[in-house]
Design a protein that fits this description.
About 40% of the residues lie in helices and about 25% in strands. The chain starts with 14 loop residues before the first strand and ends in a 5-residue tail after the last helix. A five-stranded mixed β-sheet has the order 3-2-1-5-9, sandwiched between helices. The radius of gyration is 45 Å and the shape is elongated. It contains 14 helices and 18 strands. It is an alpha/beta fold.
Length: about 575
């Protein structure tokens, strides 16, 4: 098959974070690589809070499939497919009670941000991230092709990926994103048929929606995501590693992989090192008894005609010991053991969530011989890839901008001073020789004399201003008050009292509008207004506070203008040739 699926090379980053979602829990494992040695630096467990995306993302679900059903694999290309006898549990026709409405994606942005922040605070930098997509949010479709269809090698029977994608879109009835579809080869049912397991994310898949939510937030940076893996491909690769250690002489031995979780139970039947059947039982969880789990597996084994298994690999979560004992009873001729024992790390006490996260991280930093057993699967969409970024933040760019502006300012200042110096030199060259050759001390004495006379005149003006302002302010205010009272009519002023902010007027008026008119003309503020009757005539007693003008008197302004004109004329005389 043409390998358009993204291959993941071993990363050179010292830290890699594997993340997976199991029910309401987010598991993460931080791995550190030093040379050829691997070390589990830290494990994270976060309980998810129910948050849903505002719009559904991802690939549309298989038409007619129950969103909350128990079975997620569709067989065959139509009527020729296998028809299970447990129709109520394995029905894909859409005739059951299931709803066709797709649930929204449940986000875990807060939990992921918290894990990455804890990594940075602990000094582990910006790790590369590998996600393991939840099995309940992935769609599994079995594809069957005649062996003659685009065959390149009659022995192995690889088929063009494009042909598989076309067949999958015909079977699903919806166009799919090619980079988000993976194909796992399966053991052939006969000599004339190819079998492949197509895996692609459902619209409810939370990882893509979470990264899109982080990308939409301008104040957050996307994690350095490198990989989207699936539980099926990860467990299949680890089973291959285990079988190469256990039974290298029996390549066709059948094995069973059982992962019992809080949302579903994942069952994989493996023939040799090839996947034979994959099943996601959503009605079977850790809350069921071990006998119920084992009996359901036996039903699947009989239904699909799978022979006796020689190895049973368990990935348990709760009650792992009881499930293992029941498997030993139901499969007496099989070797039952935990799959985590074949991890290339010493830390073995982990559950299925941490196991999937650790396997996803190993896809980036694992040993090449160990990774040969894994399929090159990566469902990470290119639209979410973080663009190349410099290893510093916005504050460094701000400092660069400030440095650039400062450099421009000093260059401009240098050019300005250079031009001003040239202009003054030119003016000196134009001066008569008598002036140009005058003693500098004599010139300085003349300048000091002029400065002294200037200061003396300024002090005299200040004294004159103080005298004129004090007398002129009250006279002008009284004159203005007399004019405005005469213009308003029907109003008289009883007293005139100075205040810090102006003058307080007290008086009486025959009408209230006269008081308002006087306050408007004087730009004053009415502090009080009292009504009374004198000989049956209305009289309004008022208190108005008006500001005093603070402008320079006309004589002072005139003297200042004359002094400024004389000073300018005196200073400009020596510059004339």
């Amino acid at each position: 098959m043409k390998a358009k699926q993204q291959k993941v090379a071993r990363t050179k980053a010292p830290y890699v974070l594997g993340v997976t979602i199991a029910g309401r829990t987010v598991y993460a494992v931080l791995l550190k690589r030093e040379g050829d040695a691997l070390e589990v630096v830290r494990r994270f467990t976060r309980q998810r809070v129910a948050r849903f995306a505002s719009m559904q993302q991802g690939v549309p679900e298989v038409k007619g499939q129950e969103a909350g059903g128990d079975f997620s694999i569709q067989f065959g290309g139509g009527s020729s497919g296998v028809t299970p006898f447990l129709k109520s549990e394995f029905d894909l026709s859409g005739d059951g009670a299931g709803s066709e409405q797709t649930p929204p994606a449940s986000l875990f942005t807060m939990e992921l941000t918290d894990i990455l922040a804890e990594c940075r605070e602990a000094g582990y930098g910006d790790p590369e991230v590998a996600f393991c997509l939840p099995s309940v949010d992935l769609a599994y479709v079995e594809l069957r092709l005649p062996r003659r269809a685009r065959v390149k090698d009659q022995e192995t029977g690889p088929v063009d990926r494009k042909a598989l994608l076309e067949l999958l879109e015909q079977q699903v009835g919806t166009p799919l994103e090619e980079e988000q579809v993976a194909f796992l080869p399966m053991a052939p049912s006969d000599a004339e048929t190819h079998r492949f397991l197509a895996i692609y994310p459902r619209p409810s898949e939370p990882v893509t929606a979470t990264l899109q939510a982080l990308k939409a937030e301008s104040n957050r940076k996307l994690p350095r995501t490198r990989l989207f893996e699936t539980e099926v491909s990860l467990y299949l690769g680890l089973v291959r590693t285990a079988l190469r250690q256990l039974t290298p002489e029996a390549p066709e031995a059948r094995s069973l992989v059982l992962r019992v979780g809080s949302d579903d139970t994942l069952v994989l039947f493996v023939q040799g090192e090839t996947l034979q059947h994959a099943e996601s039982l959503r009605s079977l969880t850790v809350h069921d008894t071990p006998e119920t789990v084992c009996s359901r597996i036996l039903l699947l084994q009989d239904e699909y005609g799978i022979g006796e298994v020689s190895h049973v690999f368990l990935v348990g979560e709760q009650g792992e010991t009881e499930i293992q004992r029941s498997l030993e009873v139901f499969f007496p001729n099989a070797r039952v053991e935990n799959l985590r024992h074949y991890l290339p790390l010493d830390d073995q006490e982990i559950g299925p969530g941490s196991l999937a996260a650790q396997l996803a991280a190993l896809r980036l930093v694992g040993d090449p011989d160990f990774l040969k057993a894994f399929e090159p699967i990566n469902l990470f969409p290119s639209s979410l890839r973080r663009r190349w970024e410099l290893p510093f933040g916005w504050h460094v760019w701000a400092l660069y901008a400030l440095l650039f502006v400062t450099t421009l300012f000093f260059v401009w200042r240098y050019l300005t001073l250079e031009a001003e110096l040239g202009e003054r030199q030119e003016r000196l060259r134009r001066l008569p020789p008598a002036i140009a050759e005058t003693d500098a001390r004599a010139l300085q004495a003349r300048i000091d004399s002029l400065n002294a006379r200037t200061q003396q005149a300024l002090r005299a003006l200040d004294v004159l201003d103080s005298l004129l302002v004090g007398s002129d302010r009250w006279s002008r205010s009284l004159a203005q008050l007399s004019r405005e009272v005469a213009a308003v009519r029907g109003i008289w002023v009883d007293s005139w009292s100075p205040r810090t902010s102006g003058v307080e007027l007290k008086g009486s008026a025959v009408a209230r509008d006269r008081v308002v008119e006087l306050a408007r003309r004087l730009n004053g503020v009415i502090r009080s207004l009292t009504f009374s009757e004198i000989r049956e005539w209305p009289v309004y007693a008022f208190v108005i506070e008006i500001p005093l003008p603070n402008e320079l008197p006309e004589p002072a302004r005139y003297l200042r203008e004359q002094f400024a004109a004389n000073t300018q004329a005196t200073q400009s005389k020596p510059s004339n040739p």
